[in-house]
Amino acid sequence: MSSKVSYRQQISYCGKPQCRKCSRGIGHGPYWYEYRTVNGQTTRTYIGKKLPPEIQARLEKVAQSPNRLIQDELEGATVRVFTFGHFRLERRTQRQWQPVSEAGWQQPAVRSLLAYLLCSPERRARRSQLLAALWPTEDPESATRRLSRALSTLQHLLTPRVSRPKATSLLQTSDEWISLADQAALWCDASAFTRLASRPPSTNEEEYERQLRRAIALYNGDFLPEEHHAPWVLSQRQKLRQDWLSLLLALADLSLKRNETTAALDQLDRILIADPTYEPAVQRFLYALSLLKRRGEAIRAYHRFYQALQKEQLSPSAETMQIYEAIRQGHPLRFPFTAQPRRERPPERPILRPEKPIQTGSQQIGRTHQNPLVGREQELQQLQALLQEIEEKQHGAAQRRSSAVPLYTQRRPQCMFLLGDAGIGKTRLAEELGRIGSQRGWLVIWSRVYQQESGIPYHIWTEALRKLLVETELFPTLRSKLLTPVPAVGEAAPELMLPSASLQPLKALLPELAGPQPPLYPSLSPEQDQLRLWEATQELLIEASQSVPLLIVLDDIQWTDSSSGELLGYLARHIDGYPIFLLATCRESELAPTHPLRNYIAHMQREHTINMLQVKPLSREAIGKMVAHLPEEMVERIQEKAAGNPFFAEELARSTPPALPGSIAAALDHRLNRLSRPCQHTLCNAAILGGSFEFHMLSSLEHDADEDTLLEQLEEALQSGVLIEEGSGSRITYHFWHPLMVDHLYKALSRIRRARLHQRAATILEDMYQGRTDEVAAAIVHHLIRGDAEPARIVHYAEIAGDHAQALSAFAEAEKHYQFALHYLEKLDQQSERRTALQERLAECLMIRGNFQEAHNLYNEILQAQGHALPLYEAQKQALLHGEVGRAWRNKGETTLAHQACEQGMQILREAGITSGFAWARLLYQQGSIYSMEGRYTAAWEAAQRALDYFSYQPDTQHPTSGFTTRLERTLQGDQVNLGNIRRLLGQVAAAEGRLGVALEHLTIARNIFEQAEHKRLIGHVSCDLSYVLIKMGRLKEAQAALRHARTLAEQIGDTPLMGVVYSNYGELAASQKNYEEAESWYQKSIVLAEQHSDKVYISMRCAQLALMQGEQGKLSVATRQITRSIRTARAIQNNPCLGTALIVLGTLRTIQADEAETIPILQKHLLRCARRDIERALHLPGLEAELLLKGKLALAAVAVRQGTAEAQTLLAEVEASATRSSFTFLSEQAHELRLQAP
To answer: Where are TPR repeat segments found (predicted)?
Structure first.
C-alpha cells in the first residue's frame, strides 16, 4: 500500500445569497485541508484555520528549501509577496521575514490594489484603469477617494520600520501612473515562478531536474485564490496553473525514464488532484500502475477519468483508449513517452490590456428604430447556442490545447456563415446576435465590404482590426509594444525605434502603427510574409480576447478579396478554445462558381471549422406580423409581393402602391445589370407570362426567335440567379427569383408593347389548348384584361374560368372570375338571362366563403329581376332562390327572417300548383335546419323526414340544361347531394336529442353519398359533424382523424365558416382531455371567424365555451367578460340553445368562485345560491339539446354537493344512467366521479 499526504490552504464559498463575503468574491478562510492519497484514491479532510503545531513546524522546515534556492533573488528585497495558495505579505526585519499583520492588510481594497498592480504589465497601471477595474459601479469622485485611501494604506504596509526612505520607492505614484518596484526590491513568488518556468531546459539531466523542482516548489496553490471574479486574475491564474502542470508532467517523465515509478506516481498524483481530466498525466499514471502490477487500480483510474470527461461532454483520445485496452487485456506496455524537454518559450510578454475596462453593454449595434425581429426565432437560437458554447468551452480549452494528445476530432466550429439572398435578413440576424452578445459582455466588431472595394487586399480585416484597437483602446499600448527604443550607433545619430518581432507584420494592414525604423528582417518570400501577417493577426485577436470576448461580424463577405478569405480560413482553424466568434454574412447568389471564397468555404467545412446557416424566406404569417399595423388589404398585398423577403416587406409598407420603392428597384437592377441586353429583353417578354413559364410558350411569344440563342439567354439568367428551373426533360418550368422581379421587368415595357404581348399570349394559349381551353381559361382572361381585349371575349373566358374553378372547389378563384364576367357583361347591353345565371353562380360562391350579406343581396337582385307569372320550372327556381335567401339569414343567426324567406318559396310552389318534388324537398330541408338551430328538434326531424319522402318523387317539370349547371339547377335535376344533406340534418337532430348511435348512422350514409359525388366541401362538413359525435362518445382517435380530414378540405377550398366549426370541435376535443389552455386557443380562433361572418349563434355558443375554459384555468375576470357577451348575444337573437348554454356556464363559473371563497362562508353560500338559480333557469328553457340538459343537471348536482343537499345523489344517478344510455362517455365518467365525492 502506498500513501501520500499533503496540506493546502483554500478559500471556501458558502453560496448563501445573504453572505457579503461570498457576494464580494472574498470568501471564507483560508482554511487548511489534508489531502491523503492511498492506492490512487485521494480524500480531502478539513483541518481549520491553523495547522497543528507539529505539522506547522514540519511545513516551515520544508518551506525553507525553496527560500534557499531563491536566496540570491531575495538579497536586495525588503518586501516579499506570496500569491500562490494564500495571498500574504512579509517584510524583512533585520535578517528575518515577518508577516504583515496590520489591520490595513485585511482591507479588500488594499489587497485588490496590490494584486492588480502585480498582474499589470511592468507592474504599473493608470489611475483610470484602477478606478474602472476596482470600483466599476462607484461614481468617479467616490472611487477616487477610495483609491487614495487604499494607496495610503498600501504605502504604509510596504514601508519597513528600519528604512523608510528606501522603502518608499516600492510604490511610486504620479498624477497618471501608479507603479510597484521590480522583482529585485519587491519579490513576488509568481514572478519568480514565471522566470524559472520559462527557462530553457538544461542539457544536463540532473540540472534540469533541479530546475523543475525549484519552480514546482514555489507553486503552493492557485494564484490569488481569494479573487473569485476579477478577469485580470482569472487569465493569469489559468496560465500559471498550466505551467505548473507542465512542469510536474516533465518531472514525472524524468522519473519514468529512470524507472523511478513510485516517484513518478507521486508527481502524477499531484497533477490529477488538481485536474482529473489532464490526459497526458492519466496516460502516464496508467502506465506507471501497470509497471507496478496494479492492474485493478489502473482500470479504476481510467473509469474515473472517463466519467470526469463525460461531465464535460468529451471523450478520451485513441491513444488513451489503446493504453486502457492493453492493460485490461493484460498485454505488456512499452514506455511510449519520451522525457523531451518542453519547448523553449519566448520571454514572457504581458497580455495587451486596455487602459480601462470595456463597456460592452452600451455599444450601438446595427441600425436604430428597427421593428422587432419576427420569424427568425430558430435561426437566432442556433446563433445564441454557438455563442454560449464558445463561452462554456473557454474554461477547459487551455488545458486541452496544452495536452500532448491531438484532439482535432473534438474541434467545434467558432465561425458561422449566414447565407441568403439580398434583403432576406442576414445582417439583421447578425445585429440581433450582436446586441445579445454585447449585453453578455462580448465586444462586437463590425466590418463591411462594398462591391467597389472588392479589389483592396485585406480591406474587411483592416477595418475590423482598426475598430478593435479603437474600441479596446489598445492602440497606444500596441504601438508601444511594437516600438522599443534602442540607442543608435554614434553619438549624433537620433534614437531609432525597433519593432517587436511577432507583431511587426500588422504594420502592413495598419500603417498608423509604424514609425521611423530600419528593416528588422531580411526580405522573405511572399508566402512567408503572408504567414507572418496571418500569425500576427491571430496573436492580436487572441490577446485582445483575454480582456473581453470578441464577436467579429464580416458583413457582405461575398465582395471580399481572395486574401481576406484565406485569412478567415486560417483564423477559423486557430481560434479554437478562445472567446472569439467569427460571423460572416454572404449572398450566395453573388458568388460565381469560380469565386475563391467557394473553395475556402468547402475547405473549412471539411476541417469542421465552420457552420453554415441558410437564411430562408419568412413565412406568410411572419410577414403579416411585420406589417400588422397596416390595413388588411395592404397586408395581403405585401405578403404576396414580398414572398418572404423582410426587406422588401418593410420597403413596400413605407411606399404607396402601385409604385415600387426605389430601394427595391435598385436591388433588382443590381441583379439585372449583370445580364446582357438581349437577355434582359427576353426576360422582359417573359414577365408578360407571369412568375413562371415554359420554354415553348416563351419561344412562341418571341417572333422569329432562334431557339439556341433563346436557350443561351435563359442559361445566363439561371447562372445569375434571376431564374430558377424546375422539372426535367422537356417539361421544364422557369420561375423568376422573386415576384417583384416580374413586376419590375413588366413595368420596364411600354404600355403598347405590354398590350400587344398580352394579346399575343392569349392567342397562343387559345391555339395551344384548342378543345380544352378550360384548363388555361384563367390565364387567357388575365392576358385579355391586360391586353384590353373585346368585352365579349373576356366574358366568355371568364365564365369558363369560373365554372372550371368551381368544379375544382376553388371558390375564391371562381368568385373572382364570375365578378370579371359580370363587370365586362355590363359593357354589353344584352344577355340579361346570362347575367342572372352568372349572379346565381357568384352568390353560391359567396355563400360558401361566408359572405352571407353579399350573397343575400345578389339573390334579392335576381328575384327582383324576375316576373311573377312564371313557367313551372322557373317557378321552382324562384322558390329555391327564396330558400337561398333564407339560408343566408339562417347563417347570420336571423331565424325569423329565415323562416319568412322559406315560407315565401313554399307559397310560390303552391301558387304554381306544385305539391311535391325536389324543390319541396330542398325547402323542407332548409326549414328543418332552421328548426334545429332554434332547438325545435321534433319539428326539425319531421321536416327532414318529409323532405326525404319528397326526394323520392321525380317531377315532370324538368328543364333540359347543357354545360355547367348551378346548384339550384342540379337540385331540380334530383342531385343526390341533396339526399346527403337531408341525411346529414337527420344525423344532427338525432345527436341533439341524445341518440348518438342513430346520428352516427345517418352521418355515415351522408358521407358515403358525398364521397360518391366527390363533393369536397360537403365531405368536409359531414366529417366535422362526425368528429363532434365521436368526441361525445369518447372515440377520440377517430374524432381526430375526422377533424384532420375536415380541416384539410376546408383549407383547400377556402370554406371559412367550416373552418370556424372545425376550430370549435378542436376546442371540444382538447376540453374533453382537460387541456383547457389549448381549448381556449381553439375557441378564440373560432370566435374570430364567426365574427367575420356575423354568425351570432356561433358567437354566443363559442363565447360561453371560451368562458368555461378560462374559468377552469382560474381566469375568472376575463371569463366574466366572455359569458356576459354570450348572454347578451343569445338574448338579442332570442335563441334558447344559446341562452341555455350561457346560463349553465354562468352557474359553473359561480361554483368555481364559490370554491375560491370557502374561507368566507357567507359569500360562498350566496354564490352557490346564484349558481343554482342560473342553472335552474336554463333547465326550464325549451329546445335544449340532450347533452346540454345533462350538463346542466351535472352542474346542478355539483352545486348540491357543495350545499350538502340530498338531491345530489339523485341527480348524479340520473345523469350517469342517461349519459351511459345515450353513449355520452365523458359525461358519464364525470357523474360517476362526482358521486364518489357526494355526501
So the answer is: 1060-1093
Instruction: Give 394's contacts (C-beta < 8 A, 6+ positions apart).
Output: 549, 577, 578, 579
Is pLDDT above 80 for 616? yes
Query: Locate cell 496553473: which residue?
Result: 241
User: Which residue, among 829, 830, 786, 820, has the nearest Cα to 800 in the 3D structure?
Assistant: 820
At 252-307, the pLDDT tens digits run: 888 888 888 888 888 888 888 888 888 888 888 888 888 888 888 888 888 888 88
Sheet strand arrangement including 96-99? 96-99, 88-93, 79-82, 186-188
Is the N-terminal amide bond of 53 cis, ω within 30° of 0? no
Task: Specify the pTM.
Answer: 0.52
CA angle 997, 1000, 1002 (to 5 degrees): 110
Which burial class, exposed, middle or buried, applies to 830 when counting CB atoms under 10 A from its CB (0-12, 13-18, 19+)?
exposed
Closest CA to 49 of 83, 19, 81, 9: 9
DSSP 84: B
Half-sphere exposure at residue 1064, Cβ-oriented, CA atoms within 13 angstroms: 23
Question: Do 211-328 and 379-487+496-515+525-614 agree at the fold level?
Answer: no
How far from the centroid of its chain's Cα atoms is residue 523's Cα?
52
Within 13 Å of residue 904, how many CA atoms lie on the same side as its CB?
Answer: 19
Long-range contact list for 747-756, CB < 8 A, 24+ apart? 747/660, 748/684, 749/684, 749/687, 749/688, 754/688, 754/786, 754/787, 755/786, 755/787, 755/788, 756/787
1030-1059 per-position pLDDT tens digit: 998 889 899 999 999 999 998 888 888 889
For residue 1121, which of 1084, 1094, 1068 has the smallest C-alpha distance?
A: 1084
Question: What is the C-alpha end-to-end distance of the chain, expressed in Å?
Answer: 74
What angle separates helix 1225-1237 from helix 1207-1222, to the nearest 10 degrees? 160
Mean pLDDT of 834-851: 82
Which residue did the predictor score with more confidence, 1023 or 221?
A: 1023
Residue 71 and residue 82: Cα distance in Å, rounded?
15
Other CB atoms within a 10 A radius of the CB of residue 1144 amount to 27
**Alpha-helix residue ranges (DSSP H) falling in 546-661:** 562-574, 596-606, 620-626, 632-642, 646-654
Distance separating alpha carbons of residues 799 and 588, to the nearest angstrom: 45
Strand partners, 32: 9, 48
> What's the pLDDT tens digit per position in 402-412?
433 333 444 67
Question: Which H or E run contains 751?
Answer: helix 751-768
Instruction: Give the H/E segment covering residue 555.
Output: strand 550-555
Question: Is the CATH code 1.10.1520.10 the one for domain 211-328?
Answer: no
pLDDT exceeds 90 at position 623: no
Q: CA 498 to CA 487: how far, in whole Å? A: 10
CATH number, domain 379-487+496-515+525-614? 3.40.50.300
How does 24-51 read in b/e, with b if 16+ C-beta sit within 10 Å? ebbbebbbbbebebeebeeeeeeeeeeb
Q: Mean pLDDT throughout 942-954?
A: 79
Rounded to whole angstroms, the Cα distance separating 652 from 1089 reads 28
Query: Of the spans 462-476, 784-798, 831-845, which averages the highest pLDDT?
Result: 784-798
Q: Cα separations (Å) of 516 from 484, 491, 508, 509?
A: 12, 18, 14, 17
β-partners of residue 98 are 91
- Domain map (residue ranges) of the chain: 211-328, 379-487+496-515+525-614
Instruction: Tell me the pLDDT band of 15, cut-offs 50, 70 and 90.
Output: low
Distance CA 33, CA 51 (A): 9
> 324-356 burial, b for 16+ CB within 10 Å, e for fewer?
bebbeeeeeeeeebebebeeeeeeeeebbbbeb
What is the pLDDT confidence band of residue 957, given thresholds at 50, 70 and 90? very low
Which helix (H) or strand (E) segment holds residue 1070: the answer is: helix 1056-1072
Q: Residue 613 — φ and ψ, nearest 5°?
A: -125, 110
Contact yes or no for 81/89 (Cβ under 8 A): yes
